[in-house]
């Protein structure tokens, strides 16, 4: 069976729509429909019910969903194990959110190169939902993220907590009650805490969904926003940014997620490295 058919099946399940799945896969809707039709013909039963509201799983689709996970996981594992670089005893695949690569995961890469030079590393960057899907599919071995989902057979372990502080380019800033304030989308927990801390705050004029982009914008154009302390500490020390006095500090925990039942010494080395590096990262994230 073509593994691409099953990947397409998963995209339709996740998005609930043939159109949205096509956009994710960067193919046409007719291609998605043809792949699903081929898969349904091979299985001898319909997998989705189509309606104006989208695509829902049939009872057969719900049953196949469980097997699809195992098929993709086995395929990814086989594909990687038969293509190991020369001299390597194994391979580890880790995915992390962009902000966590900025420091924590780069330090982990250096740690792994020193502790396990004979392990090939493959890394991915993505948001929490995508990383969780890759864990379920077996496309990655470890995920490091801010908002993990609960999943059967997966361990969710907090490794450290970010401190999001309000920083501004102006030494005396009225942030966030000023036109230059940029609202950075750090997730639903931040949104709730932010709304509670500033109940009378007017709607910010600018929203930016990526912290690195927001920080670059503020440094180049002036303004203020919430950022991880460990990221902006050098800029605070250099004077290009200033801590807004009296502003609340928000916590943002980071988690490592990995399969519970897997007995893999390479994974254990990687997890040990993440925990050790996270201790150092927690120190840089503190006041």
CATH topology descriptor of the largest domain:
D-Maltodextrin-Binding Protein, domain 2
Average pLDDT reading: 88
Query: What is the chain-wise order of helices and strands?
Result: HHHEEHEHEHEEEHEHEHEEH
Low-confidence stretches: none
**Shape, principal axes of CA atoms:** globular
Give the total of beta strands. Answer: 11
Outline the biggest β-sheet: 7 strands, mixed
Structural key phrases:
single chain, 287 residues, alpha/beta, Arc Repressor Mutant, subunit A, D-Maltodextrin-Binding Protein, domain 2, 2 domains, seven-stranded mixed β-sheet, two-stranded antiparallel ribbon, 10 helices, globular
Characterization of the model:
The chain has 287 residues and is an alpha/beta fold. The chain folds into two domains: 3-81, Winged helix-like DNA-binding domain superfamily/Winged helix DNA-binding domain (Arc Repressor Mutant, subunit A, Orthogonal Bundle), CATH 1.10.10; 89-287, D-Maltodextrin-Binding Protein, domain 2 (3-Layer(aba) Sandwich). The protein is built from ten helices and eleven strands. It has helices spanning 3-15, 18-25, 29-43, 59-81, 98-115, 128-137, 188-197, 211-221, 229-238, 265-284; strands at residues 48-51, 54-57, 90-96, 119-125, 142-145, 154-168, 182-184, 206-208, 224-228, 242-243, 250-259. Strands 3, 4, 5, 6, 9, 10 and 11 form a seven-stranded mixed beta sheet that branches. α1 packs across α3 (29-43), α1 (3-15) crosses α4 and α5 packs across α10. It is globular. The termini are far apart. The mean pLDDT is 88.
